[in-house]
Specification:
alpha/beta; aminopeptidase; Glucose Oxidase, domain 1; Aminopeptidase; Arc Repressor Mutant, subunit A; 3 domains; DUF2172; 19 strands; elongated
Length: about 425
């Protein structure tokens, strides 16, 4: 795997997807899903009708936006949706009216502490409208009449989502879930889909998958709630581990947010992976949740889902503003997150309980697994890893436990596991755990 090339590819895809205006529903979501389907034809685009009840929620109307802007008293067009889709509050109702500045101010949003940033604001579940602008621009507005134009439609349509299922030997599943409902933002939107679709490409190429992989591209919150409401029993019976893929594009420290269970298989592999992937990461508790782990881990759903991220949502200053642009993410940042998540997947594929097949130490030399001559000048580090693994492969520890016990990366032990399996010196004593 060429990580540099993969990082560049993911970044190019983010560049191509960045201009699309995504929301909970509408053509931007379908355009994004169509783009992803061109990469992985196995992606199925599903739909859920507006008005569908999903637990305590109702799927909202579909939203279509053609254009939006404000004309100032001097005739200048500002807050133009075509120039930046963050200028318009998501799900704004149609408007064409003239207002005084005081009346308009009630529908304007800016961030005084970040005077050059355009905030991201939505109103999905209550009819409203508004414009977002840099605070520096807002403070320069003068008294007079302002014409507001919002060419939008809200109608009974559908909510769309993407789903890929790659079957494995086992019906037990690993879940990857990301979201496709934010407009032009890079880290807290596009980093998730571009890393996830790259992971889907890697999973598709696996010759023999132990697990079945379920990969979801959902509108956040309502999308995951609606999906869970349709698939809850299947997920509860089959899901062994899941990861929310979001905020994975910058080059700041890694982050991990544990599941509500705290000790699920997903948590176990995430902690082990990050320990050996990076020098430092921040561990956030479920009390600091904020993405779709809220739904997958909620009481009564109780799925083993956690998050491996770079800068966690809500912790970086550019979050939910126009400053979360393509300069915030990088090919290296994307590639690092991709490698971390792919490492977790590769470890899960080999996370069986292993047991030695001989009593006392096996004779490794006759199997070509030990140097023919004993010379203390040789590098015995790989042999030491192998013998340490054999010493603790007593049928009570899975791969991650073995790796933790001998203080090695489970990823580094996989080639050794394969050699020992081929030599019939260890055996798998249970199904994937």
């Amino acid at each position: 795997m060429n990580l540099d090339a993969t990082g560049q590819l993911m970044y190019r895809r983010a560049e191509e997807l960045f201009p699309i205006n995504r929301s909970l529903s509408g053509p931007g979501v379908r355009q994004t899903l169509s783009y992803l389907k061109d990469i992985i034809p196995e992606l199925n685009i599903g739909s859920i009708a507006s008005g569908t009840q999903a637990f305590d929620w109702t799927v909202p109307k579909e939203w279509f936006i053609e254009d939006a802007y404000i004309i100032t008293p001097s005739g200048e067009k500002i807050c133009h949706f075509e120039e930046c889709n963050l200028h318009l509050m998501g799900y704004s109702t149609p408007q064409e009216k003239t207002l005084s500045l005081d009346a308009l101010q009630e529908h304007l949003f800016s961030i005084p502490s970040m005077p050059d940033a355009i905030p991201y604001v939505t109103s999905y579940y209550k009819d409203n409208w508004g414009f977002c602008l840099a605070h520096n621009q807002r403070t320069k507005l003068r008294e007079g009449d302002y014409k507001v134009v919002i060419k939008s439609k809200l109608f009974d349509g559908e909510l769309n989502y993407g789903e890929i299922v790659f079957p494995g030997k086992s019906s037990k599943e690993v879940l990857l879930s990301t979201y496709i409902c934010h407009p032009s933002m890079a880290n807290n939107e596009l980093s998730g889909p571009v890393v996830t679709i790259a992971l889907a490409e890697a999973i598709k190429k696996m010759k023999e998958r132990e697990y079945t992989y379920r990969i979801l591209f959902l509108p956040e919150t309502i999308g995951s709630i609606a999906y869970i409401s349709k698939h809850l029993e299947h997920l509860k019976q089959n899901l062994n581990a899941g990861f929310i893929v979001t905020c994975v594009g910058d080059e700041r420290d890694y982050s991990y947010l544990n599941s509500r269970q705290e000790n699920s298989l997903a948590d176990k592999v995430a902690i082990h992976t990050l320990k050996h992937h990076t020098e430092k990461y921040t561990h956030y508790s479920f009390l600091e949740r904020g993405s779709d782990e809220r739904q997958f881990c909620s009481p009564g759903v109780d799925l083993p889902v956690c998050s491996i991220m770079r800068s966690k949502y809500g912790t970086f200053p550019e979050y939910h503003t126009s400053l979360d642009n393509l300069s915030l993410i990088s090919p290296n940042g994307l590639a690092g997150s991709y490698r971390a998540l792919l490492s977790a997947i590769e470890i899960l594929e080999y996370n069986w309980v292993y047991k030695v097949t001989t009593q006392c130490e096996p004779q490794l030399g006759k199997r070509g697994l030990y140097p023919n001559t004993s010379d203390m000048q040789q590098d015995y580090s790989q042999v030491r890893k192998m013998t340490n693994l054999l010493a603790y492969a007593d049928g009570t520890r899975d791969l991650i436990d073995l790796a933790d016990k001998i203080n090695e990366s489970a990823l580094d032990l996989i080639p050794i596991i394969n050699k020992l399996l081929q030599a019939k010196l260890i055996e798998k004593v249970n199904k994937v755990v």
